Amino acid sequence: MPEHMLRDLDPVDELRLRRWAREHYAAAEDRDAGWHPIVLEEMEQKDRELVDARFHPRRAAGAYVPLAPSPGRFFIIDEAHSLGANRKVLLSVETVE
């Protein structure tokens, strides 16, 4: 990315460009090389996320409950902490209409 484009870019404008890129996502073959480098960078990031979601659908859907790290323990996901089809309701709350 050209240095002068980043130097003059306000952080708020950068976030606006990234949001625009997310909302107006285009496939790689449909992108214009003349678009702002931030827009292209954000669309490339979205490409990577889509590939990741295709190969790891449970992780992409947020199917795991994060655990606090403990000293000397590797970061693993215990099966008991993943969302399964047999989830139990611990508390039922009546709704008022």
If you had to describe this structure to a student in words, what would you say it looks like?
It is a single chain. This protein is an all-alpha fold. The chain has one domain. The protein is built from 4 helices and no strands. Helix 2 packs across helix 3.
Number of strands: 0
- How many structural domains can be distinguished in the coordinates? 1
Low-confidence stretches: none
Largest sheet data? none
Structural class: mainly alpha
Estimated helix fraction? 40-55%
DSSP summary: helix tally: 4
Radius of gyration from the CA trace? 21 Å
Question: How confident is the prediction overall: mean pLDDT?
Answer: 76
Between the first and last Cα atoms, what is the distance in angstroms? 55 Å
Strand residue content: under 5%
Shape: elongated
Order of helices and strands: HHHH
